[in-house]
Structures are given as structure tokens and as C-alpha cells.
């Protein structure tokens, strides 16, 4: 099963991806997580990506495509995968098409106001990237990741001005993807403004028909 999750920043991609990946035993591949890991470790890719990520703009397609071409060749992707945050432009989607046949694309639909509400209270784990919310998904122990014990922090690009930029970038550069996949009849629109478990259930129902 080869799946894609699309949605504005803060729409719940990471949260759902984690549940889908555990339930269906397919790897969760998040380009955002990979980039943050590279930035933290100051790799060559991290150095190239840093200013884009911090300002809320997209990292150039070329870099992302090179990264994904390699990642999708790894043995754990043989029986399927779930992509979170990739593709983000129509050009990335066209490149992906040359590599893989995608079964389903889920679009998590959430308003701008809700995005701001979620992101302003989001915390993520420094070690494993898991995301939490101070009101909607609080960790069991304050400041500590339930899964790995890592330290929770607020992402630099979750500051209000950068979130505005990311939303603008989403509407301009990523939303056209929805039409691209709709024309291929593999797009499923999901109401992302429901409780976490209900969103997951809606996705499951589509996967299991
Ligand atoms: P994305 O990966 O799309 O940026 P996340 O999965 O990190 O989004 O979710 C953004 C924030 O909203 C997190 O703090 C997360 O805990 C919270 N969240 C995710 N899904 C929901 C939901 N259905 N209802 C309320 N809060 C949610
Ligand atoms: P979000 O919570 O906004 O969905 P992500 O963690 O997916 O955020 O991405 C964080 C940042 O990483 C983006 O704002 C962008 O700078 C960069 N990024 C992630 N995936 C891609 C991609 N496929 N193409 C270009 N840039 C990307
Ligand atoms: Zn963790």
C-alpha cells in the first residue's frame, strides 16, 4: 500500500501518519522530519535546507527529489509506505510518478484559524519527531515524549510570522496537487477538523473498502 498525506501545516499529517504507519505496518516517511534531523546534525543537506525551512519556504525540488529517490529505494519500502509532507509541488509529484505507483492520497482539510490554534500550542520531540498539543494531545509527563522519553520543544518555524508564510506557500504551491491527484481518481478529502480518532477512522474506512 502506497499512500500520501497532504494538508496545510498543522492539519494533523504527522499525528495521523504515526497511527496509520503502526496500524498497517508501513514506514512513515516525513520529509520535514528528515530535514530537521539533517539541520540538527549540520549535514551538507541540512546546511542547504536550513534557511528555507526557517523562513517557511519550500526547499528546492531538486534537493527533495534526490533525497526521496534514495529513501524510497530502502528495503523497508518494498511493501508500501506512507508519505507525509512529500510531494509538495506538482513537479515533485511528477517525479514521484516516475518512481512509484501511488494507491491513495488523503487530503486533510482544515481552516486557517484551526491551523493557527493547533500550531501555536504544538510541541514536538527532539529525538523522534512525535508531535503533541498542550490541550488536544498532552504528553503524560510535562515536557517529555511518551514514546521515547525525549525532550519536547516548540519548532522554530512554528512562530506566528513563519506559520503565515507556510500557509501562503501551501495554498499557492501545494494545493494545486489536489487537482493533479483528483484527475487520477485517487484523491480522498478528509474532514481534518474532527477529533484525532475520528479522522483516523475516516481514513481507515477508505483504506478498507
Ligand atoms: P502536521 O504534521 O500536519 O504539521 P501535526 O500532526 O503535528 O500536523 O498536528 C499539529 C498539532 O495539532 C499538534 O499539536 C497535534 O497534536 C494537534 N492535532 C493533530 N490532529 C488534531 C486533531 N484532529 N484535533 C486537534 N488537534 C490535533
Ligand atoms: P508542516 O508541519 O508545515 O506540514 P513539515 O515538517 O512537513 O511541516 O515541513 C517543514 C518544512 O520543511 C517546510 O516548511 C519546508 O521548508 C520543508 N519541507 C518539508 N517537506 C518538503 C518538500 N516536500 N518540499 C520542499 N520543502 C519541504
Ligand atoms: Zn520521542
How would you sum up this structure, described in words?
The strands form 2 sheets. Strands 2-3-1-4-8 form a 5-stranded parallel β-sheet, with helices on both faces. The chain has a 3-stranded antiparallel β-sheet with strand order 6-5-7. A hairpin with a 5-residue loop joins strand 5 and strand 6. The chain contains 9 helices and 8 strands. The protein has a domain at 2-27 and 74-110 and 161-207: Rossmann fold. It starts with a strand and ends with a helix. By secondary structure, the protein is of the alpha/beta class. 47% of the residues lie in helices and 15% in strands. The chain has helices spanning 13-24, 31-40, 44-55, 61-72, 90-99, 112-120, 160-174, 176-182, 196-207, and strands at residues 2-6, 28-30, 81-84, 104-109, 122-125, 131-133, 152-153, 187-191. The structure holds adenosine-5'-diphosphate (ADP) (2 copies) and zinc ion. One adenosine-5'-diphosphate binds at residues 7, 9-15, 118, 122, 131-133, 136-137, 195-196, 199. Zinc ion is lined by residues 125, 127-128, 130, 145, 147-148, 150.
In short:
The chain is an alpha/beta fold and 209 residues long. It has helices at residues 13-24, 31-40, 44-55, 61-72, 90-99, 112-120, 160-174, 176-182, 196-207; strands at residues 2-6, 28-30, 81-84, 104-109, 122-125, 131-133, 152-153, 187-191. The relative contact order is 0.19.
Amino acid at each position: 500500500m502506497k499512500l500520501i498525506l497532504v494538508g496545510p501545516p498543522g492539519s494533523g499529517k504527522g499525528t495521523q501518519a504515526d497511527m496509520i504507519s503502526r496500524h498497517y505496518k508501513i514506514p512513515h516517511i516525513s520529509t520535514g522530519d528528515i530535514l530537521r534531523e539533517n539541520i540538527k546534525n549540520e549535514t551538507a543537506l541540512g546546511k542547504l535546507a536550513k534557511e528555507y525551512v526557517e523562513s517557511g519556504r519550500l526547499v528546492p525540488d531538486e534537493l527533495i527529489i534526490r533525497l526521496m529517490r534514495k529513501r524510497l529505494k530502502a528495503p523497508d519500502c518494498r511493501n508500501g509506505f506512507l508519505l507525509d509532507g512529500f510531494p509538495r509541488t506538482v513537479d515533485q509529484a511528477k517525479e514521484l510518478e516516475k518512481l512509484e505507483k501511488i494507491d491513495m492520497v488523503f487530503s486533510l482539510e482544515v481552516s486557517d484559524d484551526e491551523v493557527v490554534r493547533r500550531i501555536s500550542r504544538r510541541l514536538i520531540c527532539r529525538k523522534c519527531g512525535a508531535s503533541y498539543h498542550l490541550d488536544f494531545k498532552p504528553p503524560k509527563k510535562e515536557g517529555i515524549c511518551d514514546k521515547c522519553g525525549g525532550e519536547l520543544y516548540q519548532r522554530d518555524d512554528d512562530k506566528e510570522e513563519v506559520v503565515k508564510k507556510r500557509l501562503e506557500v501551501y495554498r499557492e504551491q501545494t494545493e494545486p496537487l489536489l487537482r493533479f491527484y483528483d484527475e487520477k481518481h485517487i484523491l480522498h478529502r478528509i474532514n481534518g477538523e474532527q477529533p484525532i480518532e475520528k479522522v483516523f477512522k475516516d481514513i481507515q474506512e477508505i483504506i478498507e473498502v
